Amino acid sequence: MHGEAGVVSEGLATPPERRMGLPATLSLVVASMIGTGVFTTTGYLVDDIPSAGGLLLCWAVAGVAALCGALCYAELGTAMPHIGGEYRFLSELVHPVVGFTSAFVSLIVGFSAPLAALALAFGSYLQALVPAVHPVASAAALVVVMSALNAWRVSAGASAHTAFTVIKVLLVAGFAVVGVVSGDAAGLSVGARVGEVVTQPGFAVGLIWVSFSYTGWNAA
Known about the structure:
- By secondary structure, the protein is an all-alpha fold.
- It contains eleven helices and no strands.
- The chain has helices spanning about 1-15, 20-35, 35-50, 50-80, 85-95, 95-110, 110-130, 135-150, 155-180, 195-200, 200-215.
């Protein structure tokens, strides 16, 4: 009996590992960028930056910043291969209080707010297709269903997430191809010169919107 109890206790002490493969991890990063940020911030950007070149430059600058952050996280993750992400990095590199504060802010704002924004955007798009569905109700249902799926089994959530990401990437690629093939280039307006908009406050505001779209770089 004592031996059996020891086996049981050991089994309880070592729960099964919860891992995500490379495809699911990549889709997590990609899906965090393609979606709410890309599809909802463009209108705000056009209001703040009246220049086609300025818009592209804004995306490029924020992209370089996101790439630097991702490279730093890759180095930190290699040096400290433990679970915890930002909480682990800041706790060990700075102070545990800083790590706790970062985790608390991420719980309340850093992850909860983007998830809410994403769900509400989903509800708005769904209502455009099915007017009878209330956007808040569908947004809440999406959060509950996906949370339950990931809580039930990580592999199931990862597979569903990867499938959704592939669909989104194909849709975006399809939009681009259709725009190039059958779009009216005369409708594009170059607007102000890049040098004129970079020094304006609107460019800095645009970087905030674009940085929101690039937040997926630290998701994995």
